[in-house]
Design goal:
alpha+beta, 5-stranded antiparallel sheet, 3-stranded antiparallel sheet, 29 helices, globular
């Protein structure tokens, strides 16, 4: 016990390993005892009290400011995103609670702000339990340490070079110059130059015969294969299935389309996308009724999510917003064909609701309006992807799982040992996000179309859409109408779109994970009654539901935890979110956003047809390319996000991939070792299967002229920006 208490205040481990439980070694007198796994009821008598006291140390008492040397896990709201003591403009609402439901983060206990007692003071260092931090002693820098250093240096450097934050690109030649000439980085101190080159060897290049360096971007794979990929409607549609956000596309099951928002506030609920318009765009291939019954009509619908924010966002200088719907038709070769985009502005500033539908056309004016409408939709897509599919559904939703696991499951618990590799560095990278990415005035607010309402939207979507049971890949696909249960089909599901790369590869990965988790759980819970009698396990699941995600505690969709089957589904879902889901939305970011016209993060100007003045319309007709460039991000916004996406899309040399290396504790158990080896073998097979699929000419969403193969769910990867590889955990 004395040794354990000493461990609680001693320096952090040298690498990502939970400190070996010294009480186990002392009690058992066997160096291998620290690897042993025990259910609470099976714990040796001499360790039971110490097991309980260990958890007491980790849970803390919920009081005082946490210190860097502590190992205490507790919960708090997101009350540290704003900085009202610095500026009233940086005041942000607390996320978490009745008004803004949200998952909980790790409590730091910092003092409250002087000007806003609901908010916590910000500081340069955010408390993270020391077992979750990146070691200062490890010789090779971990990726997230690189991320932190790079962001703190690169962003201020860029902002000092580009004087006018709002200056747009004058032409597409200037956009291309980012990949050719690059951006000069003058006046850097010598030590900073060397540091930047070490951190970002892909980006920072030396200029021959000069003391200056440049930030020169490498062409992403998409641009390298087809310079004009971003311009094409077929690529716009393909990326909904095989791009960096394959989570928004849904089957249309009801017609006509109709808003659920209050018509007294947001205007008429009926969509302007009519039956006649859709049937015209389908070129008479079928009626709307036939298209819906045959499951040929799909939608990306941000109308009701974004419309409540339009009026507020439009008060921010340099950005705008609409509610949007984008409709697609499924062709006989399993590719999607964009039919229409609807943009809506609610009643505001004394004006009635405005809405308009844009379609692919053949006359010049309509073609440019369609391109501008796509730019707006892509800005909506980028915001939803980053704030919801990526941050909310992986990083943010996972932190409560980590806290509960450390508070309620002893290091001896087999489920702790199963989950532990999937939580590596997540709390540290989340702290970095609160420090520089999602904070008030941070990178996301400066770069995304919702501005200071970005995180508030994330909370709104959590309230409206997030369900734990739908984070499982099969359930997610079914809920969006992208699959139906079919016992005769592979994985027990029949896909609505057979050539859906994310779903096809993801289901193979899901099944492999579930089989590994099943083997593991059934070994330790051979007697099913052990699930309900395991007080640590039950406390863990209760705490996740009622505290970590406490704003959703009364929802009926939470899974019960009574049987091994229940536990297998819960654990597989958590493992999927931290590995497969995160890999799918993260490591393709530079591939698809590195050339920003493909996925602009912000739309800065309204559509030319919305209440146009004669002069504005004349300017649009004279030079429509200029209108598109003005709508795109400014030079600073584009360069900032391109640099960030390059950093965040990179794998560290120390990356730990799913199923690649066995944990020491598993290797000691021959049954678990054999199960892990089978898991590893299935993942090796998956690598080959994905290669075969990408070589199949019949799969047009992953094979074709200029098409980037879908590799985001290939399990393994070399270091760097590769567009593939599934790490165990959310470590970047």
């Amino acid at each position: 016990l004395v040794a354990r208490r000493e461990a609680a205040i001693s320096p952090a481990p040298a690498a990502w390993e939970r400190r070996p439980s010294k009480i186990l070694v002392a009690a058992e007198g066997d160096a291998r005892a620290e690897l042993a796994s025990y259910l609470p009821s099976q714990t040796p008598r001499g360790l039971r009290k110490l097991r309980e006291e260990e958890l007491g140390i980790l849970q803390g008492n919920g009081q005082g400011e946490r210190k860097s040397f502590e190992r205490v896990y507790d919960y708090d709201t997101y009350n540290d995103l704003g900085d009202p003591d610095t500026s009233v403009d940086l005041k942000r609402p607390v996320l978490g609670g009745k008004e803004h439901p949200y998952p909980r983060r790790c409590r730091t206990g910092r003092p409250r702000c002087d000007t806003d007692p609901l908010s916590e003071k910000r500081g340069s260092n955010i408390y993270i339990p020391k077992d979750e931090t990146f070691s200062e002693e490890k010789q090779v820098a971990f990726l997230a340490k690189t991320v932190r250093s790079a962001l703190h240096m690169v962003i201020p450097t860029l902002e000092s070079v580009v004087i006018d934050e709002d200056l747009g690109f004058p032409n597409f030649t200037a956009v291309d110059s980012l990949f050719n000439e690059g951006v000069k980085l003058p006046n850097l101190k010598k030590e900073n130059k060397g540091f930047l080159k070490t951190l970002l060897p892909r980006l920072v290049k030396a200029i021959t015969n000069t003391t200056d360096d440049v930030l020169r971007f490498e062409a992403p794979k998409t641009m390298d294969r087809d310079k004009f990929f971003w311009f094409k409607d077929e690529e716009f549609a393909r990326q909904t299935l095989a791009g960096v956000n394959p989570h928004s596309i849904k089957l249309v099951t009801e017609w006509p389309l109709k808003s659920k928002l209050d018509s007294k506030i947001y205007g008429p609920q009926d969509s302007a996308v009519t039956t006649e318009l859709v049937e015209r765009e389908m070129r008479g291939l079928m009626t709307i009724k036939e298209a819906i019954s045959q499951k040929k009509l799909f939608i990306i619908d941000y109308h009701d999510l974004f419309l409540p924010y339009v009026s507020k966002v439009r008060q921010i200088e340099g950005t705008t917003l609409y509610g949007s719907r984008t409709l697609f038709f499924l062709t006989p070769d399993d590719t999607l064909w964009p039919l229409a985009i609807e943009l809506t502005r609610p009643p505001m500033d004394g004006k009635p609701q405005w809405k308009q539908v844009f379609t692919p056309c053949w006359d010049s004016t309509s073609v440019w309006l369609w391109r501008l409408a796509k730019a707006h939709v892509l800005a909506h897509e980028s915001s939803y992807h980053q704030l919801v599919s990526h941050w909310l559904r992986t990083h943010c939703a996972t932190e409560p799982y980590i806290i509960a696991t450390n508070r309620q499951l002893s290091e001896m618990h087999p489920i702790y040992k199963l989950l532990h590799p999937h939580f590596r560095y997540t709390m540290d990278i989340n702290a970095l996000a609160r420090e520089i990415l999602i904070n008030g005035g941070g990178i996301f607010e400066k770069s995304f179309t919702l501005g200071k309402y970005s995180m508030e939207l994330s909370s709104f979507v959590y309230d409206q859409e997030w369900q734990f049971n739908l984070q499982a890949l099969p359930a997610d696909l079914i809920s969006r109408g992208m699959a139906v249960e079919d016992p005769t089909a592979p994985h027990g599901l029949k896909l609505t779109i057979e050539d859906y790369p994310y779903a096809n590869d993801g289901l193979l990965l899901w099944d492999s994970m579930k089989e590994w988790v099943s083997d593991y759980v059934k070994h330790y819970y051979a007697n099913p009654s052990l699930i309900e009698s395991d007080q640590e396990l039950q406390a863990w699941w209760t705490e996740i539901r009622t505290i970590g995600h406490g704003d959703k505690k009364d929802e009926p969709w939470w899974p019960v935890l009574k049987t091994p089957k229940d536990l297998i589904e819960i654990i597989t879902t958590i493992v999927w979110v931290t590995s497969g889901h995160h890999a799918a939305v993260n490591f393709g970011q530079y591939t698809y956003t590195g050339y920003f016209p493909n996925r602009p993060t912000i739309a800065r100007t309204n559509m030319p047809t919305e209440d146009p003045s004669k002069e504005a319309w004349k300017t649009f007709l004279k030079k429509p390319e200029g209108a598109l460039l003005q709508c795109f991000p400014s030079q600073m916004q584009a360069i900032r996000m391109m640099a960030v996406m390059d950093i965040l899309s990179s794998h560290s040399p120390e990356e730990e991939y799913i199923g690649e290396k066995i944990e020491p504790t598993w290797a000691e158990n021959q049954v678990i070792k054999a199960a892990f080896e089978r898991f590893n073998g299935r993942l090796m097979e998956l690598e080959g299967t994905i290669d075969e699929r990408n070589a199949n000419k019949d799969l047009k969403n992953r094979n074709g002229a200029g098409v980037v193969p879908y590799e985001l769910l290939k399990p393994f990867s070399p270091p760097g920006v590769t567009g593939k590889g599934v790490p165990n955990s959310i470590s970047v």
